[in-house]
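Suppose a colleague, Dr. K., hands you the sequence of a protein chain of 213 amino acids and asks what its three-dimensional shape might be. Before reaching for any lab equipment, you can write down a predicted structure in token form. Begin with the sequence itself:
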Amino acid sequence: MKCRLCGLRKARRSCPALGYQICTVCCGTKRLTEIKCPGDCPYLTSSRDHPPAATLRRQQRDAESLVGSVRDLNERQSHLFFLVASFVSGYEPGDLGSVVDSDVADACRALASTFETSSRGLIYEHRPASLPAERLAAALKAVLLEAGQQQGGSAYERDAAVVLRRMAQASEKVAGEEASPRAFLSLLGRVLRKPVDNEAPDQTGATPRLIVP
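The predicted structure, expressed as tokens, is then:
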């Protein structure tokens, strides 16, 4: 029986999240990104306890790629960067289909321009080119405005703009290195730790932790 995800390889693993068998490659590459694995999945547990060398190298490259984007940011900008990254990683547009890396870059650039304009005392809403990017920008703006309620003003808006431009650059860089429309989004899913069923949620309100081997 062929894997129902790729339709290419033989299905050898029973996936508790999907309820049917998939191939080992899809199990390994889509785990916790496209497949919402339960915490008691034996393949997930095994991969965490005994990650292969290739996985460790990939995690290291992923972490270095994202950390490189925040290396020269100040504390507030770094916090905002991972707030944006966390939101983008978990963003679900509903019945409009999934967003791709170009939507992320487009949304972040337009929203950065909006914040830059606002920091100069002008109100003008810069709009992305695509509808998915426009909806992502609107949702992301609400998150940033809520985060800045206690520390708003032009300084906060400038910091938000810096972070959004950095996010757009990171998305374009990763997308240019990998032949996948969701390469950057997949990277965020791998690097930003998200609680699974058997883990207690973070009660501190902090942004997700980096998975650094």
